[in-house]
Design a protein that fits this description.
- It contains three helices and seven strands.
- The protein is α/β, with parallel strands linked by helices.
- The strands form two sheets. A five-stranded parallel sheet has the order 2-1-5-6-7, with helices on both faces. The protein has a two-stranded antiparallel ribbon with strand order 3-4.
- Helix 1 (2-10) crosses helix 2.
């Protein structure tokens, strides 16, 4: 299934951490991390994580939102995959990429179940390889 496909893609990339974006990314991310033998990190809204966090703000259509990870979750030099259910405008994943890079680790891939192609979210991801298992065009 899906996890097998992602495992095959990332198994030789030296992944040490998988970041799942709240909340459907937790399900996929946890399963993928277990398969890869990597650590799993939850990216959550402010106030949800118990320890010290690193935060990144991103723009929404009407205002801003913020995501956080535990400050000790990602170490310099680690290789990270980010996973979420949906790539729309790309704002959330762009925020997580910035956060990981600020923590001096590298994002080697981002994966989504569904990509909404018309919203061009992958433009915000830059040179990082994107894997989307299904694509949908607009109306």
């Amino acid at each position: 299934g899906m996890i097998d496909e992602l495992y095959e893609m990332y198994k030789d990339k030296g992944i040490t951490k998988v970041v799942g974006i709240e909340s459907r990314g937790f399900i996929l991310g946890g399963a993928l991390a277990a398969r890869l033998g990597a650590g799993f990190i939850m990216a959550r809204k402010p106030g949800k994580l118990p320890r010290e966090t690193v935060n990144e703000t991103y723009d929404l259509e009407y205002g801003q939102d913020e995501l956080c990870v535990h400050a000790d979750a990602i170490l310099p030099g680690q290789k990270v995959v980010i996973i979420d259910d949906l790539l729309a405008t790309g704002g959330t994943v762009e925020a997580i990429i910035k956060m990981v890079e600020r923590m001096q680790a590298s994002v080697v891939g981002v994966a989504f179940v569904i990509e909404l192609d018309d919203l061009h979210g992958r433009d915000k991801i830059g040179d990082i390889p994107v894997c989307s298992l299904a694509h949908y065009a607009g109306e």
